[in-house]
Amino acid sequence: MTPAETLLAEAREAGVHLFVYRGELSFESEPGALTPSLLVRLRAAKQELHALLSAGAADVPLPEAEEPEPTSPPVKTPA
Fold this sequence. Notes:
The protein is α+β, with helices and mostly antiparallel strands. Helix content is 38%, strand content 15%. The protein is built from 3 helices and 2 strands, in the order H-E-E-H-H. The protein has helices at residues 3-14, 36-44, 46-54; strands at residues 16-21, 24-29. A two-stranded antiparallel ribbon has the order 1-2. It is globular. The termini are far apart. Mean pLDDT is 81; it is low at 59-66.
């Protein structure tokens, strides 16, 4: 795994979801998930993370974790 892949997996494990939106590296997270230390490291690797996510980094393995409990009931869409 490259350093950027390792950092991406670490961010995901911490609950920080990174993605490219309209050409910019963006993130979503729960309050407190993005620590100052992690933010500094993400900023330092911004170009590498952008390239990795643009190339389809969905293949980066996630750490072993239990499935989270759903926070709301599933929404059914009309067929």
